């Protein structure tokens, strides 16, 4: 049994990860920033100061962690209106992550698993699934902050001996999902016509159950030390195929209108939403061969099983 500290343990991925770790027999402390609930069995540790300021001094004397899995982050914000978005992202995703790593090392942790994002590498695959060795070319403040955090954490690990494991998921979905994926489900459930019928470019996704299975392995497997892994379901879908699959599990046919992709791009430019359109129509596939070869990992859930679970949750909740 290991003792794992999970930052952001009350969030979408954090709750699922905590449950998987507990089921595997590990002790879990949830490091959260507000007085919110974690799942049963998780020791809750509230540290409300922004960007984990003062974390090393506040670390409880009886929390001796073997590993920290760092999920907490400032996530991607569509149409960010901040005067300097990169500075805000850096404060949380770079400096905040380093504070957690420093505190973890000072209190005896051997490993730090950083949940980054495929956006730290690229926004589109250029015709070839993205590998861990590809040179990073992030395009927005969120992606740049994640890439900078990866670099800073690797340097910290090299200086101190803390094992740094980096995991880059694409879009994560599953019961409890929010943001754009939830909006897509709502639109399909509501019978709203979607101009996505002609979109053929494929994008990788990862079901939350598959992601947390990989994260558990990264937290405890000695072979994961100082590695970087891309993780995905193993079957890529176009947004039109995704919508059709969601509709099937909702028992509601997705109403897809075959608007040419060129028209969608033109509309995006006119409306100032070119980036949002690009995320729908450009390919973004990831290569998971390194994770499979290094840890012998295979996703325990198929895409269809993940979408079925997500649709069942939505029908039971809304």
Explained architecture:
The strands form three sheets. The protein has a seven-stranded parallel beta sheet with strand order 3-2-1-4-5-6-10, sandwiched between helices. Strands 7-9 form a two-stranded parallel ribbon. Strands 8-11 form a two-stranded antiparallel ribbon. The mean pLDDT is 94. The protein has helices at residues 12-23, 55-58, 85-106, 141-160, 179-189, 208-220, 239-250, 261-270, 274-281, 289-295, 303-317, and strands at residues 3-7, 27-32, 43-46, 67-70, 111-115, 163-168, 171-173, 202-203, 205-207, 228-230, 237-238. It is globular. The chain has a domain at 3-174 and 205-235 and 285-301: NAD(P)-binding Rossmann-like Domain (Rossmann fold, 3-Layer(aba) Sandwich). The protein has 318 residues and is an alpha/beta fold. The chain contains eleven helices and eleven strands. Helix 7 packs across helix 11. Helices cover 42% and strands 14% of the residues.
Task: Pick out the low-confidence regions.
Answer: none
Helix content: 40-55%
Structural class: alpha/beta
Query: What is the radius of gyration computed over CA atoms, rounded to a whole number of angstroms?
Result: 20 Å
Query: What is the succession of H and E elements?
Result: EHEEHEHEHEEHEEHEEHHHHH
Give a quick account of the main beta sheet: strands, pairing sense, barrel closure: 7 strands, parallel
Question: Whole-number average pLDDT?
Answer: 94
From the 3D structure, determine the CATH topology of one domain.
Rossmann fold
The CATH superfamily of one domain turns out to be: NAD(P)-binding Rossmann-like Domain
Number of strands: 11
Report the portion of residues in β strands.
5-15%
General form: globular
Instruction: Provide the CATH architecture of one domain.
Output: 3-Layer(aba) Sandwich
Structure annotation, total helices: 11
Termini gap: 38 Å
């Amino acid at each position: 049994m290991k003792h794992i500290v999970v930052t952001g343990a009350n969030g979408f991925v954090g709750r699922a990860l905590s449950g998987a770790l507990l089921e595997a027999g590990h002790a879990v402390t949830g490091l959260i920033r507000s007085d919110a609930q974690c799942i049963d069995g998780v020791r809750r540790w509230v540290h409300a100061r922004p960007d984990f300021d003062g974390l090393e001094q506040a670390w409880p004397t009886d929390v001796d962690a073997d590993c920290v899995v760092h999920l907490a982050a400032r996530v991607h914000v569509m149409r960010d209106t901040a005067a300097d978005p990169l500075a805000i992202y850096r404060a949380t995703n770079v400096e905040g992550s380093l504070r957690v790593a420093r505190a973890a090392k000072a209190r005896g942790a051997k490993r730090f698993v950083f949940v980054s994002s495929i956006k730290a590498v690229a926004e589109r695959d250029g015709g070839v699934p993205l590998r861990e060795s590809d040179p990073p070319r992030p395009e927005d403040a969120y992606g740049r902050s994640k890439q900078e955090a990866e670099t800073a954490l690797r340097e910290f690990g090299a200086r101190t001996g803390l094992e740094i494991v980096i995991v880059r998921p694409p879009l994560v979905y599953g019961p409890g999902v929010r943001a754009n994926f939830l909006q897509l489900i709502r639109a399909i459930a509501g019978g709203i016509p979607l101009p996505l019928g002609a979109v053929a470019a494929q994008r990788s996704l990862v079901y939350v159950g598959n992601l947390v299975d990989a994260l558990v392995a990264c937290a405890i497997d000695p072979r994961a030390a100082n590695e970087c892994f891309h993780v995905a379901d193993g079957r890529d879908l176009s947004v039109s195929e995704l919508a059709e699959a969601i509709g099937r599990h909702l028992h509601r046919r997705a109403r897809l209108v075959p608007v040419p992709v060129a028209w969608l791009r033109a509309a995006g430019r006119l409306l100032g939403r070119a980036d949002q359109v690009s995320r729908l129509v450009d390919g973004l596939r990831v290569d998971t061969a390194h994770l499979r070869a290094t840890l012998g990992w295979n996703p325990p859930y198929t895409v269809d099983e993940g979408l079925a679970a997500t649709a069942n949750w939505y029908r039971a909740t809304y």
